[in-house]
């Protein structure tokens, strides 16, 4: 039954189709599931270019409005400023009962422009900057590291400003760890609710990639960028191949750091791993489904994660997983549902992969436990109901 005080929901997200990744997936599923519950959902997002974008938007069971921007300004920095300038008009048109900022770390400050509105604002936080940020302005590592030092300080200050001065009534944190980071940044502990990301059931891909039955396939899906740790996984291949000569690692995802990508490519060529490590670049949803289907083992060697939807997507497909102790990975892989390593160290990665390979009974048990757990705890309809409960808290606080 729809709460009489909440009928129309305005979701604001800097990340949405055709952008790919955990936050984009979260936005799409959240809007869809809220709509299935009977709410009138309106999404405001960027006007990124992509294949069949109009068809994608009109086929949704919720309303999608894209704010037009100059191509040079289609970034997380400028989109919230644009929202801040147009928020009064948007609110007047949509007449929402609650606003959910789904992604976009600067949006709370932008919304502060609208001081006269009495609409509850809920802010969903996937990570706290400068986590999962990078900066590559030069091929020189020393130059990049120096620039990052000051850039990350600035981003960190902006995050604290969002927490202390942003106009929101409640915060949704996607994990307990992120909640802790939010409190450190100045958010009030009693105004934060932890609501995890959800995961959708797999679909048939309809795509048939190269037959890899003769290989032991290792998969990681993430943008190629420093904090995702793909380089450490490639370094681990030397020790892995000494035990598993038919090991093949697929690194699937768009290039988000050209310097990091070139570093990985250079090492692959130097070691002669062109048949054992495949950098696929960005994959379509159908191709990605096929990569999940044919992998024997999923590895997430990240230094930083807000939550990590990718490892959930592997687990729900019955794939055994290895991950580092960041984001929600320790929660997901606890109690024998996978292997958690403390950091993306090449020896730790290699030893874990070899253990999975050599003990097929352990591997299948991990996969079964992981799938059952994800199906029970992270089904999207449940996540949507928990999100609505947070909306109610925000409405009550506003009153």
Describe the structure.
The structure is a single chain. The protein has 399 residues and is of the alpha/beta class. It has two domains: 8-198 and 379-398, 3-Layer(aba) Sandwich (Rossmann fold); 216-377, Glycogen Phosphorylase B (Rossmann fold, 3-Layer(aba) Sandwich), CATH 3.40.50. The chain has 14 helices and 13 strands. It has helices at 22-36, 53-58, 78-94, 107-111, 141-165, 176-184, 230-243, 258-271, 285-294, 309-316, 329-332, 346-358, 360-377, 380-398, and strands spanning 8-13, 40-46, 63-67, 98-103, 121-125, 170-173, 192-194, 216-221, 247-252, 277-281, 297-300, 321-324, 339-341. Strands 3-2-1-4-5-6-7 form a seven-stranded parallel beta sheet, with helices on both faces. A six-stranded parallel beta sheet has the order 10-9-8-11-12-13, sandwiched between helices. Strand 1 (8-13), helix 1 (22-36) and strand 2 (40-46) form a beta-alpha-beta unit. Helix 1 crosses helix 14 (380-398), helix 7 (230-243) packs parallel to helix 8 (258-271) and helix 7 packs across helix 12. The relative contact order is 0.12.
Q: What is the mean predicted local confidence, pLDDT?
A: 87
**Strand order of the main beta sheet, please?**
3-2-1-4-5-6-7
What is the helical fraction, as a range of percent? 40-55%
CATH superfamily membership of the largest domain, which one?
Glycogen Phosphorylase B
| Assembly annotation | single chain
Number of strands: 13
